[in-house]
Amino acid sequence: EITSKCNLNCFFCFSPKHEREFIDSEVVFSVINQAYKMGVKRVRFTGGEPFMDSHLHDYVKYAKSLKMEGWINSNGTFTDNEHYIDIIKHADSILIPLHHYTPEGEAKITGNPYSFKNKLKTVLKIKRINPRVFLRAGTVINERNCDSFFNIFLFVRKELGLVHENYRLIHTDCEKSCLHSF
Questions:
Q1: In Å, how far are 15, 46, 172 from 49, measured between CA atoms?
Q2: 76 near 118, Cβ under 8 Å?
Q3: From CA 93, how far away is CA 105, in angstroms rounded?
Q4: What are the tens digits of pLDDT across the range 118-167?
Q5: Dist. CA 89–CA 115, nearest whole Å
Q6: Per-residue pLDDT tens for 134-145?
Q7: How far apart are CA 52 and CA 50, in angstroms?
Q8: In this structure, how many other beta carbons lie within 10 angstroms of the beta carbon of residue 119?
Q9: pTM for the model
Q10: What is the DSSP string of the chain?
């Protein structure tokens, strides 16, 4: 987690907002180097939103220079940033969260009416720029999407052609109904 900064406001987010803007780049390089020495083969950069860190490209390239894989968990909303494009070219895997299969449903979860559109635009851009990247979509199951889980899965797999990952069930009053839908 290289930053806690994020441009979305997902209601379930556990990242402490603005607790730390960015981790010092010397620390990140040191952690990558220590991981390499321990035999780690993959580094995953996440946050907050890791593309908000101007050093992300350097981190990914450094990991790659050590023959490590560079994985990124992004919220997928930085579609028009040239910095973003260069990082996509070097990444081995990118995760884009999709918590719903409609723009309205995604907006209720992320707090941003354009997040769905931007995420889809990013998926297409990633596929075009780096067709070899392992592109994944992740869903946090929660009270605002548990009744739509199957539709989300179908959208991600059939419409977008991505690997779909599920993340923790956010404990709410709908827990029983969510579990019954599986």
A1: 10, 6, 25
A2: yes
A3: 26
A4: 999 999 999 999 999 999 999 998 889 989 989 999 999 999 999 999 88
A5: 22
A6: 999 999 988 899
A7: 5
A8: 25
A9: 0.88
A10: --B---S---TT--S-TTS-SB--HHHHHHHHHHHHHTT--EEEE-SS-GGGSTTHHHHHHHHHHTT-EEEEE--S--TT-HHHHHHHHH-SEEEEE---SSHHHHHHHHS-TTHHHHHHHHHHHHHHH-TTSEEEEEEE--TTTGGGHHHHHHIIIIIS--EEEEE-PPPSTTHHHHHHT-
Q: Kindly state the tokens that stand for 98.
A: 């999709």
Place of tokens 């960015």: 22
